[in-house]
Amino acid sequence: MSSSRKLHLNAFLMNTGHHEASWRHPETEPQRTTDIRYYQQLARIAEDAKLDSLFLADGYVLMGNVKYRASAGLEPFTMLSALASVTERIGLIATVSTTYNEPFHVARMFASLDHISGGRAGWNIVTSSGDATAQNFSLEAHPEHSSRYRRAREFLDVTTSLWDSWADDALVIDRQAGIFADTEKVRPIHFKGDTFSVKGPLNIPRPPQGYPVLVQAGSSENGKDFAARVAEAIFTAQQTIEDAQAFYADVKARMLQYGRSPEQLKVLPGLSPVIADSEWEAQEKEAELHRLTIPEYGLTRLSELLKVDLFEYPLDGPLPYDKIPTVDSINGNKSRFQLVVDMASRENLTIREVILRTAGGRGHLTFAGTAGQAADLIEEWFTNGAADGFNIMPPHLPGSLIDFVQKVVPELQRRGLFRTEYEGRTLRDHLGLSRPANGYWSASG
Amino acid sequence: MSSSRKLHLNAFLMNTGHHEASWRHPETEPQRTTDIRYYQQLARIAEDAKLDSLFLADGYVLMGNVKYRASAGLEPFTMLSALASVTERIGLIATVSTTYNEPFHVARMFASLDHISGGRAGWNIVTSSGDATAQNFSLEAHPEHSSRYRRAREFLDVTTSLWDSWADDALVIDRQAGIFADTEKVRPIHFKGDTFSVKGPLNIPRPPQGYPVLVQAGSSENGKDFAARVAEAIFTAQQTIEDAQAFYADVKARMLQYGRSPEQLKVLPGLSPVIADSEWEAQEKEAELHRLTIPEYGLTRLSELLKVDLFEYPLDGPLPYDKIPTVDSINGNKSRFQLVVDMASRENLTIREVILRTAGGRGHLTFAGTAGQAADLIEEWFTNGAADGFNIMPPHLPGSLIDFVQKVVPELQRRGLFRTEYEGRTLRDHLGLSRPANGYWSASG
């Protein structure tokens, strides 16, 4: 590995935190999950620590059981735009689905967010899951996996063409001559595909970053292929360094067939860290969250993921493997399904143990230990082909984020793995990604 | 009129200003039309003057000819969210079309903006115009006028039901008992209409204002009827006090058939004011903008509005009335079409004069004079049943907005017509509108 290679750290924000019981933790403020000042405080903590970016997951349905969990919050475009006003450097990554949106709107919103933030926007491209989502958009059923990915690929083609519909130098602004824009450099795209026909041009000039940073989070075969083709960062859930190495090698190898270099995509596994000054204390902090977990919530969540009613089985017995369907029959979140089944069977976990193991990170790697131990894990994965950085999922907010930035980040900086100051202004700068040339105007001159 | 009745003033922001030549004016900054700091500066000017709200028009197509005009800027949801972070009181009104959007997304974005701003969101409901818009959304042609309004009515029913899908007291947040929300007070809406089937509930709690303030801008028969049924403020274009009085009386009378009281809707005609210390100076300032006007741009704009190629006629001759179609054949912007034809024929204007008369306000009332004269006009319309306030359209920005707030607003305050301090925190407070009761939870108890 080159010594100049730097680790990337993303703060994955989620209302009171990623642990499903975080809203019951005495240090969280669950009454503030729709209060923008709360998120502004989190954004400043992450920016003060020089993290690459903030990230928001999203879905178009009320997730989980709101009786037992703080699961309804602000919408990403509006929230990140509001955060852009009170930050200067940190990247702002919004999850937006290609299944239930129009490419013209999505291209425009990201272009606008990128202008507003001075080039800090990122798009986590998802295809959504579940019939309940479809039923909020006048459809009966969620489209099937491979058709969603076909639509996603075409959606991306439309949005990138729209961003490229203005040349970077289209604005002339010659007051004397009375020429605002060079209309030879603003053109309709006349896109005609299987799903979309979009004339263009976009009604906003090309974003400062050319395109927002394109991020992907699916780890299914279709997901990995899509990531290899278009993504510049990938959020993934990996439980072991071996699995992470295999995933890392797989997606980077797939990039070659699309003529892309492996450095053009940053692999960022999720990590939900509980940090304390001693290992014992960290484990006690984690146990405190586990004690606040509501079994009914975990059973509901796990039953939905595994498509089997776990309320009918003993909490302290094994998963009913013979009742769990095969991964082929899962429509959405295939890779998370497989990961949880594999983990439970590999480690002989009881249903209760599976609930607790996924209560903090929903299948992402959880960790409880000292800052040195966390830095060791991060360094090991980073230097051994398992990760280009991490998607940090604080179990409770702001406490676990503060612990991470005050204890772990300085240790990573001491080891020369993480920046001590931002070197650039845009999210592409932070991630070491080049600004995409304009696909139309560079080709035609 | 009651002495407690107060005037409402909205600042209609538009890149370098409403005059189409504003970007050539020496005091504007056309290179900043995608710079959020520029709009933050405008927002602060308007808020310091205690105006009710900021308003952004919108469309999903590159409008006009960008060769001759600064016509591409930021998207309203992202821009107003970014402005919410740097303001405290002023209302934030976004234009969003019901023709090219999904009600779930729109309900959610407005709920999010309303939470982010602490109850300052408003929705200017439009149905869009033009086949070019349709062609950015995989359609050939723009839907016909009355079908757009049918969709708009159903769209509104869905969005209000979604905002009402959470009772105002749905959040319990009892950490000890482990109850986050009372799921008896969060319900699916199971909406089934001609166009939309939406299950719900929304994935964000009810907005602070219940619903964002509902605003409408169409003045066609369908538009007036829609406004009378649902709107709480209406932006309208009126050239004379007589026309404004007729319009005012018409929409307020129509409200009765929907069981609404006339005070529940504020009629706000557009006014594009050029203010100076003397009438002569104001006229010279207006003439300076007119001299910067580009005839090709005006001819293109007017030809598009009137559906006739005006390049074939002498600039200093009359409009070719026999070639202009009837209003029935116009699909979109019917009322503006009629207003411009009527004005030209009533005042015997040449084509050049029509271009100049509409270059500043696109059919809205333009005014050049002293602060006292402007206050006289505003007071006359306000006290004689022509307006509840005005939608102020500064010809160039920030200059004409600064002139208005520094010269006209203090005069209106001296006359006791306009507030000297905000009395409430929400846009509903400023407009004197009540917070809508929850349509579902109040009915069922």
Automatic annotation (TrEMBL), chains A, B:
Amino-acid positions noted as binding FMN in the UniProt annotation, renumbered to this chain: 58, 95, 145, 149, 219-220
GO molecular function, one term: oxidoreductase activity, acting on paired donors, with incorporation or reduction of molecular oxygen
Natural source organism: Paenibacillus aurantius
Protein name as catalogued: LLM class flavin-dependent oxidoreductase
Family, per entry: Belongs to the NtaA/SnaA/DszA monooxygenase family.
Pfam families: Bac_luciferase
Transmembrane segments: none
Family matches, as CDD domains: Nitrilotriacetate_monoxgenase
Enzyme class label: oxidoreductase
EC number assigned by the record: 1.-.-.-
Protein keywords: Flavoprotein, FMN, Monooxygenase, Oxidoreductase
Domain Luciferase-like: 25-286
